[in-house]
Specification:
single chain, alpha/beta, Rossmann fold, 7-stranded mixed beta sheet
Length: 143
């Protein structure tokens, strides 16, 4: 993996960070979001999905594990929350692996640690750290 971007940002710069991540869509089909509770993972995913032209409300999939969206271009976007997934086999048994790497689609995965063995190509790993004033983001890619 290669670190391609680091930045410190506040909420007022969220749109710029989302735009940067959106520009990676041709090389990254899977985006992962790692950080502690309250770091801003869901908020960043929401901003990024808006860049993909999702017009409907974007809500956290905490209890449903995955929310599916279709944008104005007919592209499919899958927003996962793997916080309660305990193993790769559980993810596969639920059929969630079938959403990964589909043509004309992207996956956005919060709490990806347990399923990392499935994420082998075209991945953009985003790590967010935060304090009271701002957030620090680090972006790594693997081909």
């Amino acid at each position: 993996m290669e670190i391609i971007f680091t930045a410190t940002y506040g909420f007022d710069q969220l749109d710029e960070i989302a735009q940067y991540l959106y520009q990676l869509k041709d090389q990254c089909q899977v985006y992962t979001f790692t950080g502690s509770l309250g770091a801003g993972k869901t908020t960043l995913v929401q901003a990024l999905l808006k860049k993909f032209r999702i017009l409907e409300p974007i809500v956290s999939p905490t209890f449903t594990y995955v929310n599916c969206y279709e944008n104005t271009k007919g592209q499919l976007l899958y927003h996962f929350d793997c916080y309660r997934i305990t193993s790769v086999s559980e993810f596969i048994e639920q059929g969630f692996d079938e959403y990964l790497y589909q043509p004309n689609s992207w996956a956005f995965i919060e709490w990806p640690e347990v399923i990392m063995p499935l994420l082998t190509k075209k991945v953009c790993h985003i790590t967010i750290e935060y304090n009271e004033q701002d957030r620090k983001i680090e972006v790594e890619t693997c081909e």
